[in-house]
Write a structure and sequence with these properties.
single chain; Isopropylmalate Dehydrogenase; Alpha-Beta Plaits; 10-stranded mixed β-sheet; 32% helix; 21% strand; elongated; binds 1,4-dihydronicotinamide adenine dinucleotide
Length: 491
């Protein structure tokens, strides 16, 4: 029987120690009878050798061939051209859904464990879009912007991945966290798509929850949640909040799921302060390995190892980062304790189900021959109806408005609104609104029924740019007759 192939990157700092510990456990549980791991070179050594990608050509070829990567933490060089490999990998390979499981573990004392409140939920975070495109510009002396992009197909992918996982895990209810009350278009789209995709999973209940309320509710009653799906930045923050509920980042596994390539990794870093000392806790990487086993259908081995880990923790075996320091075990002794408990029944903890053995497999589409264009709305009719021009100016609203009206006099457009930091100041506004040197000036067609291309809008911008620095430009469009732009606060 041929084995399923997986790329293995031990990483930097404590990476090799925790990876060895995890591989020993996987081996003892019989996982290596079904999976073959290929070690690849990634991380600090590759950066130091002058490769700003932080991974060798061979590593890239192996990851692309296997479609699965099990990785330890990797250091990102501070300064210089090197970018975080962890972030680059997820984006480059389209690993669009970050899956993290947060559960109370026996022997790991938290506020909730002491109160007898069980914590067991998943956070599914969109991994590619949002402000994580890092598209930033300094627009004026005083203002910088970061573009926050949310796409319909990007949202669909992460919602579908969440619902599929929920169904596989027997999760009954999925929440969508958002801020659609303020970001009506971007978070509104993410939320709309959640409800649309949910229709394909009628067996799963849904609820949406505003992100700030979600944070409070997760702290007050984490037991009310089974799975929450979130946009990238909100998901990033909620993930760490959730890690705090179960005892810290050392206990939180993470999977990055894509159509072609999926990455399973510990969420903590390289811990240079304890590297090479046999002190590191391998739990996060081991739990990530269990997510990987379940991803490829090795439910029996995953269940057996998870129960052995739970029993080890319940028996009070622990590394130095939690529990009584005087009785702490080293990384290798901790792994040995897990191995000794493989196949044992748990004590008080109910443990997890151990299904029958199944041969591992993973569904993977053909290797694409060109970059895939993902789309959701293909039949939309859009038409330009005006433009928002962004100007650098320290003039007062009324004075700037006079200039704008004069400059647009003999064009198809009329000035309809001006705002500063999103708050309307013309045609009306409050004298108490403080302004910065960055104005949004909105022009709309005088005759809304008129059909036009982009040309007249660009001509208007050119005319204004002769007198004022235009720092940004956004066409205003209708999509199937519906406004494709937000109104200013107070408009
Ligand atoms: P860190 O997570 O490496 O360390 C923070 C603290 O937690 C340290 O005191 C460390 O000893 C402790 N710690 C972390 N993991 C532990 C474990 N498994 N067992 C016991 N103690 C543990 O975060 P830091 O110091 O901010 O980052 C160090 C390096 O790691 C940086 O180069 C950073 O870029 C990289 N990093 C890599 C990540 C990844 O590969 N996914 C994630 C986060 C950071």
């Amino acid at each position: 029987m041929s084995k399923l192939r997986i790329a293995l990157a031990p990483g930097d700092g404590i990476g090799p120690e925790v990876t060895r510990a995890c591989m020993d456990v996987l081996d003892a549980a019989g996982v290596l009878d079904h999976l073959e791991f290929f070690e690849v070179e990634m991380g600090e050594r590759v950066f130091a050798a002058g490769d700003s990608r932080g991974m060798s050509d061979e590593a890239i070829a192996t990851i692309e061939e296997t479609g699965l990567l099990y990785k330890g933490p990797m250091g990102t060089p501070i300064g210089g051209g090197g970018k975080s490999i962890n972030v680059s990998l997820r984006k480059m390979y389209g690993a669009f859904a970050n899956v993290r499981h947060f559960q109370s573990l026996p022997g790991v004392e938290t506020v909730y464990s002491k109160a007898g409140v069980p914590v067991d939920f998943y956070v599914i975070r969109e991994n590619i879009e949002d402000t994580y495109g890092g598209i930033e510009h300094r627009l004026t002396n005083d203002v910088v912007e970061c573009k926050r992009l949310i796409s319909a197909p990007g949202s669909d992918q992460v919602h579908r991945a969440a619902f599929r996982l929920a169904r596989r895990l027997g999760i009954e209810k999925v929440h969508c966290g958002h801020k659609a009350n303020i970001m009506k278009m971007s978070d509104g789209l993410f939320l709309d798509r959640f409800h649309v995709i949910a229709k394909d999973f009628p067996d799963i209940a849904t609820e949406d929850v505003i992100i700030d309320a979600l944070c409070m509710k997760l702290v007050l009653a984490p037991q009310d949640y089974q799975m929450v799906v979130l946009t990238n930045l909100q998901g990033d923050i909620v993930s760490d909040l959730a890690a705090g509920l179960v005892g810290g980042l050392g206990f939180a596994p993470s999977a990055n799921i894509g159509n072609h390539i999926s990455i399973f990794e510990a969420v903590h870093g390289t811990a240079p302060d304890i590297a090479g000392q046999d002190k590191a806790n391998p739990t996060s990487l081991l739990l990530s390995g269990l997510m990987m086993l379940r991803h490829v259908g090795m439910l029996k081995q995953a269940g057996t190892i998870e129960n052995a880990l739970l029993k080890t923790l319940e028996d009070g075996v622990h590394t130095g980062d939690f529990g009584d320091r005087a009785t702490a075990s080293g990384t290798s002794a901790f792994a040995k304790a897990i191995i000794e408990r493989l196949g044992q029944w748990l004590g008080e903890h109910p443990g997890v189900a151990v299904p029958e053995e199944d041969s591992p497999s993973v569904e993977r589409p053909e290797r694409p021959t060109t970059n895939t264009l993902i789309r959701t709305f293909t039949q939309v009719r859009s038409r330009p109806v005006g433009a928002d021009l962004y100007l650098e100016s320290t003039l007062a609203a009324t004075e700037l408005a006079q200039h704008m009206k004069r400059l647009s006099e003999d064009t198809p457009f009329e000035l309809t609104m001006m705002s500063n930091r999103g708050t309307q100041l013309w045609p009306s506004g409050s004298i108490y609104t403080e302004c910065v040197d960055y104005w949004r000036v909105r022009f709309e067609l005088r005759d809304r029924s008129r059909e036009m291309g982009q040309g007249p809008v660009v001509a208007l911008m050119n005319k204004i740019a002769e007198k004022f620095p235009v720092v940004d430009f956004q066409p205003l469009k209708e999509f199937d007759g519906r406004r494709g732009y937000s109104l200013a606060q107070g408009q």
